[in-house]
Amino acid sequence: MFNASNFKRATVAEKVVDYIKELIVKEKISPKEKLPSEREMSEKLNISRNTVREAYKILSTLGYVEIKHGLGVFVSSETKSINQWAASFFMKSDQILELFDIRMLLESQSVKWASEFATKSQINTLQEHVQHSFKLFKNMDIKQSAPLLAKADQEFHILLAEFSGNSILHRIMLNLIDMLNEIHKETIEIPGRLYKSIQEHEKIVESVKKKEIDSAEKEMLRHLESVREDIIININKERKNTL
């Protein structure tokens, strides 16, 4: 069931989280089932025990597993209700806009801290991520690249939260992943939005690289406001079409 082919030693905990969460969501692991120990999972996936430990903690925070000290890690019996809640959370468009208000608060601070504390290696990672997104857009058919670009967009914001150096902020952003997926569904349908986001990400990274804290914050707020405005326009068009 657990396959190491998707992992390398440098894989970050979030990717392990996505992998295990997918197994849970697809019911390849049953509710209340015990997961392999940290040692066993690290051997199965060929990653470090510390990475597994962090992934289990994140999954616990998200509500997908329960960590029972002395007994092990078990799939939560409430997983289905979590997924149902995440799927139904954005039934109303105004809730999408409310999430942007929260994102602006969190991510404006996230990028400020990243500008201050990110290492050269982390900044290189951000630059490489942006360049990879540009290549995806230019070298693939838009229908094929759109889901990959939406995922890359999500990863970009998670990376900034990670590189902020604040573990609590990072975990809060991870908790918003399922909610952000709903926004990505909206943005994929907006012509030109994905490429515009990559360009805006590039400007954010340039400010982070130069340690220009105020500029980085402005670029992040400009980016989120730009996405928000495009979504509002798209929502209004959909409303007119249903009248």
What does this molecule look like?
This protein folds into two domains: 4-82, Arc Repressor Mutant, subunit A, CATH 1.10.10.10; 89-242, Four Helix Bundle (Hemerythrin (Met), subunit A). Helices cover 74% and strands 3% of the residues. It contains eleven helices and two strands. Helix 6 runs antiparallel to helix 10 (193-209) and helix 7 runs antiparallel to helix 8. The protein starts with 12 loop residues before the first helix and ends with a helix.
Content of β-strand: under 5%
Helix content range:
over 70%
* Integer-rounded radius of gyration: 19 Å
Overall SS class = mainly alpha
Mean pLDDT: 83
How many strands appear in the DSSP assignment? 2
Name given to the CATH architecture of the largest domain = Up-down Bundle
pLDDT under 50 segments (min length 5)? 84-91
User: What series of H and E elements makes up the topology?
Assistant: HHHEEHHHHHHHH
The CATH superfamily label of the largest domain reads GntR ligand-binding domain-like
Please summarize the sheet with the most strands.
2 strands, antiparallel
Distance between the termini: 49 Å
* Strand order across the largest sheet: 1-2
Q: How many alpha or pi helices?
A: 11
Name of the CATH class of the largest domain = Mainly Alpha
Q: Write down the CATH topology of the largest domain.
A: Four Helix Bundle (Hemerythrin (Met), subunit A)
Oligomer: single chain
